[in-house]
Amino acid sequence: MICIDGRSLTLEDVIQVARFGKKVTISEEAKERVRKSREYIDKLVMEERVVYGITTGFGKFSDVHISREETEVLQKNLIMSHSCGTGPLFPEETVRAIMLLRANALSKGYSGIRLETIQSLVDLINHGIHPAIPEKGSLGASGDLAPLAHMTLPLLGMGQAFYKGELIDGGAALEKAGLKPVVLTSKEGLALINGTQVLTAVGAIAAYDAKKLMTLCDIAAAMTGEALTCIIDAFRPELHELRPHNGQINTAANLRKILAGSERTTAQGQVRVQDAYSLRCVPQIHGASKDALDFVLEKVAIEINAVTDNPIILADLDLAISGGNFHGQPMALPFDFLGIAIAEMANVSERRIERLVNPSLSGLPAFLTAKGGLNSGFMIAQYAAAALVSENKVLAHPASVDSIPSSANQEDHVSMGTIAARKARDICDNVSRVVAIELVSAAQGIELESDVNKRKLGAGTKAAYDCVRRVVKPLTEDRIMCTDFDAVLELVKSGEIVDAVEKVLGPLS
């Protein structure tokens, strides 16, 4: 059970709820803060004070007064009118993360929503009701308005939701789970949809997956290094301490650890004076992306416990301030950075694949097949990797450099942060596929080395090699290659290869 209080949620907690089905509860301390904030909203409504979204319309309609009697209709209309999402639906784990993050933000006690409304959102999580939320339609500015409106519809017995694997009417989903629809009152609709939780959920999951993927990239580079008799001197600690970027130092340490005990790596000048950059500069290239990821993870940790709606209720100060905490820019830039950083891991991975399959560079049989001509071997494997890398170059263009004014120019700068997060997620998926191709290619390169049985692999690379070989046999003649890559992709996404290596070596950085 994950207890939310608006202050202490971690990314690991988010993954436990989103991916592994952990249930959620609200802390007693948070409940008290929520009640206090709600009492203040009731006071504002009774006094008919002019406060944005409580006694006024929204966006450009902020100068339209709403009477006390119309507040419930205002909030329901808000949810229905803002449900303008389009495109494919977010997967279940993303929807669970979205609901968790919104509930956590509301539990902080600065939104003026009723406790029972937050609890109803938590009930959706705990009963496995997952609103149908289209991926597209958010500007990432006044929060993720459209997708969060779709999240809210089933709370009201409207829209659609998945329940026990079936997409059904939102009201039917509540009924099947023994829950009742919520009737929103003043401020509540706005509190539910005015926040950055969609873009944060998507980007946070991508960042979590990128963390393990970057470690796997070190393992893949080490396996390729084994196949190409890489020069181990380039990873010496003395070298990297002279340029003390954490990612670079940690990557070099990983490579030394993974390759420890290898009889296939070489010393400088033993076979060649230096390796190509894609091998020699792995600490610098991978390390830079790891440092970028650490920056992104720091921002994620802040955002998952932040208040991001509008207006913000400061009951102790007798204030309801209409500000800009809903604006996605603080996360749009990091998620664009994440996409760029992880894309680079595929760029260099594809270059290592090329070195493996190109006989002019590898010293191995052309395209890693012993009977070239009759067999094409890994020729088109490099094509597939190159296509994924090229697609990533398009996706890595920053979304946050764009802005289109909305709401009759009242909202005249928007972040496009949700697009940035979705692109980072898609890039991460492509990188996983490229690295799967490198792992299979490197295993084949190791297999083809003439005295493979005489020279042992490093302890870490041996564990990774064995893991790959459990699902993919050596290539002796042409076969349908995508089956091999898909099998290793499952290992990549499950984290099994990293786990196998760390079981032997201990934790990697």
Q: In summary, what is this structure?
A:
By secondary structure, this protein is mainly α.
Radius of gyration: 26 Å
Query: Helix- and strand-based class?
Result: mainly alpha
How much helix is in the residues?
55-70%
* Largest sheet report: 3 strands, antiparallel
What is the global morphology? elongated
Explain how this protein is built.
This protein is mainly α and about 500 residues long. About 55% of the residues lie in helices and about 5% in strands. It contains 20 helices and 9 strands. The strands form 4 sheets. It has a 3-stranded antiparallel β-sheet. Helix 18 (about 460-470) runs antiparallel to helix 20. The model has no long low-confidence stretch (mean pLDDT about 95).
List the helices and strands and how they pair.
Blueprint: E1 2-4, H1 11-20, E2 24-26, H2 28-47, H3 71-82, E3 86-89, H4 92-107, H5 115-126, E4 129-131, E5 134-136, H6 145-152, E6 160-163, E7 166-169, H7 170-177, H8 188-193, H9 197-227, H10 237-241, H11 246-259, H12 277-280, H13 282-303, E8 312-314, E9 319-321, H14 329-357, H15 359-362, H16 379-395, H17 417-448, H18 459-471, H19 481-494, H20 496-505
Parallel strand pairs: 1-2
Antiparallel strand pairs: 3-5, 4-6, 6-7, 8-9
Helix pairs in contact: 1-4, 1-9, 3-6, 4-5, 4-9, 9-11, 9-13, 9-14, 9-17, 9-18, 11-13, 13-14, 14-16, 14-17, 16-17, 17-19, 18-20
